[in-house]
Design brief:
Helices cover 38% and strands 18% of the residues. It folds into two domains: 220 residues, 3-Layer(aba) Sandwich (Rossmann fold), CATH 3.40.50; 144 residues, 3-Layer(aba) Sandwich (Rossmann fold), CATH 3.40.50.2300. Strand 8, helix 11 and strand 9 form a beta-alpha-beta unit. The protein has a seven-stranded mixed β-sheet with strand order 7-6-8-9-10-13-14. It is α/β, with parallel strands linked by helices.
Length: 396
């Protein structure tokens, strides 16, 4: 082990391949090839097919599309790929059952739901079975140091995202943003914490903050506090449907201030019933209504032609990027051993539809230059690309 610790990352990958060999995650009754790969490479997805995560995890369609494309080219060294799924029911307790199910069905690599607590619930099982595992979640709580070293996110960090948004609002001349913090899951708390840290790093002060839960029928008292402040913008640290209902109530109360929301507000599905959608901003990996570059536009058009709903494009792109990282790391190492694949991902940046993604042993989230959109005439319009200069931290 002392010797391995001194090896370079690329040599470490080779050494682990030799040491890990054929005991690296092949199906129990299926022989491995001489390359060390199982005859069929299975990606097991434990995702929310029902419950509140279902609209977000439906973006697994992008991963399935990538697998089909890869198989059409001959797979990985002649080894075809297959995706299997199990329903977490958007529940951390059910997530463990779903992860166990796909492992028992022969999964070599795992892909988890896009919510931190539910995804992290499956990490111990992944570690126990030496399975590389991905998620499209953005909030802290997945991968080192909080969960397993085999857990990676293919969605750039939420803390990076809200920092970019803070810089954007600051440059627009906003002086006193008001925070609406959804405390239901980590996502809302982390988003507001990161935004406030970033805003204060820029030398600003917030006008105030209020808490609510995604299931709250009314936030009238919170809107009253907003109206009583000197706020000149609203930061909605939440997600639909509750976050959308909150925005609807704010607009119905006559508040026409600029509103910012994170990537959970990508797409148009949540806008129904909001009396005025103008002046609403959100960050996204890329909207299908105004893609940030030609590569993204080409992929989203390809997905659309194949019958995939591209309304929530930001998640499709994150799922596709995760698939690219899985396939690249397997191609590089000729292994499905979790430790070998993790070392490969940490060793160097990898190209994806979201750009170069780089990981370290200490962090399995990446940063990026963020597309920022505004709703104009009911459709997202790209208004800026912002790279955060400051990355906040988050702790309970």
């Amino acid at each position: 082990m002392r010797l391995l610790a001194k090896l370079s990352p690329l040599l470490l990958i080779s050494a682990l391949v030799l040491l890990g060999g054929c005991g690296s995650g092949g199906k129990p009754d299926e022989a491995s090839s001489p390359s060390g790969l199982p005859q069929e490479i299975v990606i097991g997805a434990a995702i929310g097919k029902t419950g509140y995560m279902a609209p977000f995890d439906a973006a697994i369609a992008a991963l399935e599309q990538l697998v089909s494309e890869t198989n059409a080219r001959g797979g990985i060294d002649g080894h075809k790929l297959r995706v299997i799924q199990a329903d977490t029911r958007s529940d951390p307790q059910q997530a463990v059952v779903a992860v166990q199910k796909v492992i028992e069905e022969g999964a070599d690599v795992l892909f988890f739901t896009g919510e931190a607590l539910t995804a992290a619930a499956g990490s111990p099982l992944a570690e126990e079975h030496d399975k590389l595992n991905f998620s499209i979640l953005q909030e802290p709580g997945f991968g080192p140091p909080t969960s397993g070293h085999l857990s990676f996110s293919s969605n750039p960090s939420l803390l990076s995202e809200v920092s970019a948004a803070a810089s954007f609002f600051h440059d627009k001349g906003i002086e006193h943003p008001f925070l609406f913090r959804d405390t239901t899951i980590i996502y809302g708390k982390a988003a507001c914490s990161g935004f406030q840290q970033s805003w204060e790093e820029l030398g600003g002060e917030i006008a105030g903050s209020v808490d609510f839960e995604n299931t709250d029928a009314s936030i009238s008292s919170q809107i009253g506090k907003l109206k009583g402040s000197d706020a000149d913008a609203v930061v909605m640290c939440s997600y639909p449907p509750g976050g959308a209902a909150a925005i609807k109530q704010i607009r119905a109360a006559g508040v026409q201030l600029p509103i910012y929301g994170p990537t959970s507000f990508d797409g148009l599905y949540w806008l129904k019933g909001i009396p005025n959608t103008e002046n609403i901003y959100f960050t996204s990996n890329g909207s299908s209504y105004d893609p940030p570059n030609k590569a993204t536009a080409k992929l989203l058009e390809h997905l659309r032609k194949d019958g995939i709903d591209t309304d929530i494009a930001t998640n499709l792109l994150a799922w596709y990027a995760g698939g690219q990282l899985i396939i690249d790391s397997i191609e590089e190492t000729h292994s499905v051993d979790g430790g070998v694949l993790a070392a490969a991902l940490e060793a160097k940046p990898h190209n994806t539809i979201l750009g170069k993604m780089a990981y370290s042993a200490d962090s399995h989230y990446t940063n990026r230059t963020w597309p920022i959109y505004v709703l104009s005439n009911g459709k997202p319009k790209l208004v800026s690309m912002v790279k955060p200069k400051f990355i906040p931290t988050y702790g309970e």
